Structure prediction request, 421 residues.
Amino acid sequence: MATLKFRAAIALLCLALATCCFATVATPLEKTPVSSSLSLEQLEDELQKCLIVQELNVEKAARNAGAESAISRIFDTLFPGSPAVNALLATLYISGPPNFLLALCPTNIDPSSLSVMVAFAVGGLMGDVTFHLLPEIFLGEDDPERARFVLVEPNRNILLGVAILVGFLTFVAMDKGLRIATGGAGHDHGSSGHSHEHRSDIPSAADTTAIDKPDAKGVRSRAAGGAKGSDAKADALAAAVPSKEISPSVKLGGYLNLIADFTHNITDGLAMAASFYASPTIGATTTVAVFFHEIPHEVGDFALLVQSGFSKRAAIGAQFFTAAGAFLGTVIGIAVQEFGGNSGEAAALGMRDGLLGTSLSWGDMLLPFTAGTFLYVGTVAVIPELLETGPHKLAELRKTLTQFAAMAVGAGIMLYISWHD
Prediction:
């Protein structure tokens, strides 16, 4: 019965739209502009004048007049200002806490131990792209107070796809440039800062904890147990790290990683600006996804810097410096949105000619560019690390199941936010 009612409503809506369109066509041309001269936004405004559409608006507003969801209240509290203010607040949220957490990290942390956290972040990023960014890019944000209609402008969609590809290829170029700069050696640590393949000449966690047996001079061994066993291990560890000289190429890799991390954070800032100017919901969900991604990102970079010869304090300070790149990217994104034109404002002025004759402005290209960078970070830059396996099949199977579960949880959180907000 419900299906029949739904089909009847759709048929009635189609009839009403056809009537509206016929009425528009039947109007003398000197009184009504030719439809080809109208933007998508103006055409949608014309559709809103149909009586049946207005009735749908009343019904939709009544259905959404209930109490505000808890998620919406949290987002309203965290982001109470204009799109520019909210973008700056979001940048502070994604840059501050993850860097402060580095003070709690041991200097001998192994980035490979972060695989479950990385999988969780991948789920969050890919969930944000598929549940929020891509629908917003091609379909627009839902309006809780009125029915929206998707009007297709083919060249507009093509340009949006081009922007997604440009964002993806930009990170490919950044990653490739870093590999060329390091001569193909050093960490496989692209611009996303996730993949950490250790060189044999870098003291890993296993290397720094495995202390040599006593020699003729009576060096303390790891086997010196008893009540002072942990102190002996710490002393031996401190003595062993300086004894292993770090090669110049590894030191260079650490500094190049800082440059790549700074550049990557600029794209995070651009994502904050683009998402909040698209809609408050998209901005909030993108902030959550990037925050999940930043924690293993920053911890992995911290471990890389320590292995490259940085002290703990210097590594933490360097990470705070790279965080300034996110604020720079946010400011650039705000400037593009404020001064680069806006398709909605162009439509209000009756302007049609935007980028290559479409209704797009430069500001409209930031969100698809962001989606392209997230696709790279969530796939090419991270998946190879999750695909690495060891010789123990049963242990690797358990680890894989855990990673998939973490990935599902990350994507599930994005899905839940999208479904209930």
User: Anything to note?
Assistant: DSSP finds 16 helices and no strands in the chain. The first helix runs from residue 2 to 26. Residues 115 and 386 are 7 Å apart (CA to CA).
